[in-house]
Amino acid sequence: MRVLTSVAFSHLDPARGFDGGVNNFYRLIYRTLTTQGAAPGKGGTAIRPDLATDTGTPSDGGKTWTFTLKKGLRFQNGDPITSAEVKFGVSRAWDPEIGIGSPYAKQLIDAPDGYRGPYASGDLPTIKTPDARTIVFQLKKPYADFGSVVAQPTFVPFPKDTGGKGEFDRKPIASGPYQVASYKRGASLTLDRNEHWDPGTDTVRKALPDHFTWTFGLDGATIDERMIAGQGNDASAIAGGSGIQPATVARIQTPALRKRTLSGLTGCTTYLGLNTTKKPLDRVAVRRAIAYAVNKATQVDAVGGTAKAQQATSIQPPTVVGRKKYDPYPSEGGKGDLAAARRLLGEAGARGGFTLTLDIRSQPYMQAQGVAIQQALAPLKIKVTLNTIDTATYYEAIGTPSQQHDAAITGWCPDWPSGATFLPPLFDGRLISAKGNQNLAQLDDKGVNERIDEIAAMKDLDAQNAAYGELDEQIMKLAPIVPLMYEKYVGVVGGNIAGAYLHAGFSGGIDLVSVGLADPDRS
């Protein structure tokens, strides 16, 4: 199986990487206590047992969770995976340099003050391993959906005392069906089978190909041309990333290509984050003015039109359970309301305009989005300077508050389809951190923080998700972000590809654990 992509993986270390594309990849080489299913639609976002025999047993009112490991689990060298290795892997999330990925372990699991991970602080006493197959987590507070949390990449097991500094970014230790055979950062990566992976212990991964090979750094237009042609080895290839380029959309409407085309909502929201610590963005009226002024129609056009995206109004996308449909800053056709924006700027004493710096990724469509923001705000005398950052390091850069500028175009995808994975990570002011920060707006609002706690304490998940839908609207009154669009994945696969479907849990990309080749001899 070949994968052609322009963007390299952020990190091979699962404690560091945290985006839909790399999380999809992680499932090939790593396993966690639970994982998302392998199916299109809701079947894919349902949580399934993985290393554990079930999705966990709560006690103490939901503050303690116990998991039992399956028998016969092994690393790529044949060593057994026990509860001690799971504990060690999880505790790496507290390392200040390594633990910049998924935040849920640190947010939810109780830990001593000042704990800095296993390398600096040693054992984490709030995770107990009474025997080789039992692991018990003590949480800071009850959490009804902890069985979904342990599907996060930070719950990957590793042998004790391994993985310091950048070790796993160079040479991971596999627990899944594949292991890294070769890796040239930014150029290529090859996976071979992990002979110690036992399919009898794994009800999720099909692991059909014998090998996976990634080619990184390809131009998006080049990938499109190769996938459309589908010649030679490219017949056994898929494209990574966000699918075809905007300019290619019109070319894939022929019957032959439509048979090889996959499309659907990614389950993510692309948004303009406004840094509320920067003047004059520290004033709510200024942020609301920007929310009114942004032309969302041109944002959709920038990524390829309605075939590739639809305009966003709320923070949560349509795929999230409990999502509320509303539009707090409406305008005709989504083209912006400059009159409303000018009134708000007048109230804020900013009618004379100002300058802001906008962080964007080094991708053509992102450049087009940045220019569209410039054009939308220019009539308000707001001068937007574009700061282009390499795609491979973009999220790490904007997730470091000391490196943040005034605004950034970015996106968020749910770690599972719940408001719990959308709103608290982005807007809980108590979670703002020096590295790996997801609250790009740096919003720290007492009312929002308190409501997050109230919702998290709910034991009924349906009521909880409905409450997050209401919180979405409460947050948008403060305008810390401008929802721009709900993007769609549109991609062409090779003619020899079989079993490909879009997974709602991994940014709408092709689920790597199920895809295979129709005729292996053609590869």
TrEMBL record:
<protein>
    <submittedName>
        <fullName>Dipeptide-binding lipoprotein</fullName>
    </submittedName>
</protein>
<dbReference type="GO" id="GO:0043190">
    <property type="term" value="C:ATP-binding cassette (ABC) transporter complex"/>
</dbReference>
<dbReference type="GO" id="GO:0015833">
    <property type="term" value="P:peptide transport"/>
</dbReference>
<feature type="domain" description="Solute-binding protein family 5">
    <location>
        <begin position="47"/>
        <end position="429"/>
    </location>
</feature>
<dbReference type="GO" id="GO:0042597">
    <property type="term" value="C:periplasmic space"/>
</dbReference>
<dbReference type="GO" id="GO:1904680">
    <property type="term" value="F:peptide transmembrane transporter activity"/>
</dbReference>
<dbReference type="InterPro" id="IPR000914">
    <property type="entry name" value="SBP_5_dom"/>
</dbReference>
<feature type="region of interest" description="Disordered">
    <location>
        <begin position="39"/>
        <end position="59"/>
    </location>
</feature>
<dbReference type="Pfam" id="PF00496">
    <property type="entry name" value="SBP_bac_5"/>
</dbReference>
<dbReference type="InterPro" id="IPR039424">
    <property type="entry name" value="SBP_5"/>
</dbReference>
<keyword id="KW-0449">Lipoprotein</keyword>
<dbReference type="InterPro" id="IPR030678">
    <property type="entry name" value="Peptide/Ni-bd"/>
</dbReference>
